[in-house]
């Protein structure tokens, strides 16, 4: 024991570094165990992104049924703020032409996929189905006219 104390006296810097290392290790071991799951590392980021739904990247499918003919438009959107944004997105892509009315949620579709819509129809948006994976909105004719002229537009928002 006496030799050990003499050694520490002669090499006090080494003893100080070893003591500091032990205190540092004990302190940070206790600190990290008290944080537990709250700490995150760079490796955890991809896993966290996979667990959290990405609300801004959405695959949109617009199914159009009109007088027995069905066509569809599909696109990937990065916003779903409103249905007006959706129609504007299709307009920018050159797939859909529409006019809006001053009252809410009403659109008049004048052209679909480059084909003029000869019938003047107004459509009102009604949310039909909302699940964890997708949201479906049905555009029903407004005001309702004869059933033979009625078409159904279904917007399907699917999280990617």
Keywords:
transmembrane helix; rod-shaped; disordered C terminus; single chain; eight-stranded antiparallel beta sheet; alpha+beta; 160 residues; membrane; DUF4430 domain-containing protein; 8 strands; transmembrane
- Coarse morphology: rod-shaped
Fraction of residues in H or I helices = 25-40%
Rg, Cα atoms, Å? 32 Å
Query: Can you tell me the number of structural domains?
Result: 2
What's the total number of strands? 8
Q: Structural class of the secondary elements?
A: alpha+beta
How is this structure best described in words?
With 160 residues, this protein is of the alpha+beta class. The protein has two domains: 2-39; 58-159. The chain has four helices and eight strands; from the N terminus they run H-H-H-E-E-H-E-E-E-E-E-E. It has helices spanning 2-10, 12-35, 44-51, 83-92, and strands at 58-66, 69-77, 96-100, 106-112, 115-116, 122-130, 134-141, 152-159. Strands 1, 2, 3, 4, 5, 6, 7 and 8 form an eight-stranded antiparallel β-sheet that branches. The radius of gyration is 32 Å and the shape is rod-shaped.
Give the helix/strand layout.
Blueprint: H1 2-10, H2 12-35, H3 44-51, E1 58-66, E2 69-77, H4 83-92, E3 96-100, E4 106-112, E5 115-116, E6 122-130, E7 134-141, E8 152-159
Antiparallel strand pairs: 1-2, 1-8, 3-4, 4-5, 4-6, 6-7, 7-8
């Amino acid at each position: 024991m006496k030799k050990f104390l003499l050694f520490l006296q002669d090499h006090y810097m080494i003893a100080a570094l070893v003591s500091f290392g032990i205190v540092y290790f004990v302190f940070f071991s206790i600190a990290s165990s008290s944080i537990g799951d709250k700490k995150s590392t760079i490796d955890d980021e991809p896993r966290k992104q996979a667990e959290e739904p990405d609300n801004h990247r959405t695959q949109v499918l617009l199914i159009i049924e009109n007088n027995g003919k069905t066509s569809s438009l599909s696109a990937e959107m990065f916003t779903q703020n409103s249905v007006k944004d959706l129609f504007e997105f299709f307009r920018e892509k050159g797939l859909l032409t529409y006019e809006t009315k001053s009252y809410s949620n009403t659109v008049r579709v004048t052209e679909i996929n480059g084909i003029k819509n000869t019938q003047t129809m107004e459509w009102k948006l009604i949310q039909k189905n909302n699940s964890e994976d997708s949201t479906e909105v049905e555009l029903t004719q407004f005001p309702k006219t004869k059933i033979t002229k009625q078409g159904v537009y279904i917007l399907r928002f699917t999280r990617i």
